[in-house]
Fold these 2 entries.
Entry 1:
Amino acid sequence: MSEGTKVVPRLDTDRLLDDPRTRIIVCCGSGGVGKTTTAAALGLRAAERGRHVVVLTVDPARRLAQSMGLSSLDNTPRPVPLSDDAAAGGTLHAMMLDMKRTFDEIVEAHADPDRAGQILANPFYQSLSSSFAGTQEYMAMEKLGQLRRTEQWDLIVVDTPPSRSALDFLDAPQRLSRFLDGRLIKLLTAPTRAGGRAYLKVVNAGFGMITGIVTKVIGAQVLRDVQTFVSAFDTMFGGFRERAEDTYRLLQTPGTAFLVVATPEPDALREASYFVERLSEDRMPLAGLILNRVHRSPAARLSAARSLAAAEALLPAAGTGESPHSGNGGGAAPADASKYPLAVAALRLHAERMQLIAVERRLAQRFTAAHPGVPVARVAAQPEDVHDLAALRVIGEALSHD
Ligand SMILES: Nc1ncnc2c1ncn2[C@@H]1O[C@H](COP(=O)(O)OP(=O)(O)O)[C@@H](O)[C@H]1O
Ligand SMILES: [Mg+2]
């Protein structure tokens, strides 16, 4: 079998979107590959095909956010007006994830107002909620769980944060658990668990020995912050972890479809490979790979080599000043000039494009060779950034008609 004739299973995105059993779609992949764009495009398409959709975006470009009616980070799904001819009866909501706000909402929902106020004002809480590694990933999970529980939408499309690694999203609940099980937290919370209200007394006794040292090192105020924070937060830890685990399990159910997004570039595809393997280890349902920003040519039958040869032929022959093809009306042109400069430039550009296409195809084939069962959908590179509903529609169309 020659290269390029291997059959790659095609990812049928419309079937996925139309299937009422599909309740959650997670778009993941490394940074900059088109996760946000894909999530928005899929959400729009699903809504225009009749579903009630909410898209949870994380970092939409400002213009894309505006075109979807998202003007502020307020953690509330906002209706996106659909065109009138989309008569299928679907609806689209979109929201931008504000991780600090999501964290705060959890505190407000799970602690009485006094306690909540204390926690929110606590500097340790403030730095934890905005800087704890993986918070954004964790918050995306948390928000997803919340949206799912409302049962207000029949399809939730999730965009994932611009992590260093696509795996961060899956690692978040565990990382949170590790953090909560960490030594410092254990030390601080163990007395509460054992002794309830005797907490502060016990902590003071337990810490008597090391407090002096710790106070010197990190400062009395910080230590007090940590203690206040932990004592106020302790009752919530179980809830946090349980919800993270619930959402993690929800992701494993057949109603979830993971779409790994990648551009046809070595780094993005390597990351996509890791992710595909990880999903299978974690028994998460992978629907397929979306190969985004694939280059195409309107004249794919003209090979790079023939295109270059044709460009060559339009140049004056070196040294003689004569065109090799008299029919082309050669003449005494400068060595690097041609009577047809535009044609030469176009042919060279075409050759470059064809070479790029060949490289992209090889990279895609390497991925498919490593993961033969993974269906693939391709989306052509658009001439411009995707920042309005019309452009999203074009992407949605491309997704379903490879
Ligand atoms: N198929 C495409 N053609 C052209 N531009 C695209 C395409 N897909 C995405 N983009 C652009 O690429 C940039 C990154 O896309 P984005 O969806 O924000 O990536 P991610 O969320 O993975 O970081 C955006 O400016 C977006 O408009
Ligand atoms: Mg993004």
Note: Residues 141 and 247 are 7 Å apart (CA to CA).
Entry 2:
Amino acid sequence: MTKYGMIIDTSKCTGCYNCFLTCRDEYAGNDNGKYAAAQPMSGMNWMKVIEKERGQYPKVKVAYTPMMCMHCENAGCIKAAKDNAVYRRPDGIVIIDPVKAKGQKQIVNGCPYRVIEWNEEADLPQKCIMCAHMLDKGEKVPRCVESCPTGALVFGDLDDPKSEISKLTATGKTEVMHPEYGLKERVRYIGLTKKFIAGTVICGDIDEVAVGAKVSLSGNGGEQMVKTNGFGDFEFEGLADNADYVVRIEMSGYQAKTVKARTAKDTYIGEIVLKK
Ligand code: SF4
Ligand code: SF4
């Protein structure tokens, strides 16, 4: 049986907003009958792209995280609805019935991801339907997936072991955005933003950046190693929140140096000057 899901690879997302725009194009002002009432012409987004600035000068990055209904197997919105106004199709897509859900504002609060929006004019809670109306007519993917130029959105049948989504799932590298909610989300992520520690290494005697210095990071039960690049910079990405780490820098002809860092936030530990 078909079991639809999506994987969002944030490392491939460039923040172009195509997914957001095509979603608006598909639903704003368009009534899709039993699938969804028309989305208002402004103020509602079923596919969002969350932009987050990370780090401190001079090490600043922007992370983009597309976000939509997670089509959960254990959906809070279904529990919050009366009269089966929200239901899960056999293929796993969660639909808000546009007739039965009328006036049921409590459905909005049933979703801890806060992806259900209230259509004041229609007196209706609304959210992403994974383009179920198109899939039922034979389309292979939702419009957001079709419009993504970088392949950051992968949609498919989790029950088909040959599908790209099944192969990506089998790598064990996917995760849900909020495991603590316990919703068994069908939309999973690769490369969800975590924390980074970065810095710059300087050769103190010549006041030049240290190229190719060995930088190791230990902490939170693991160890990893990188070399400084042509600008003397290093970076460790994907680190745990609020964990203690030790950065050790070694370079031939210089004294080794260690620096402690805590990932309460993305951290640029600044210039580390090596002495002879
Ligand atoms: S993400 Fe929210 S709206 Fe979507 S299925 Fe899960 S609980 Fe329902
Ligand atoms: S279309 Fe793709 S690359 Fe563009 S914002 Fe959406 S997910 Fe990111």
Note: The two ends are 66 Å apart (CA to CA).
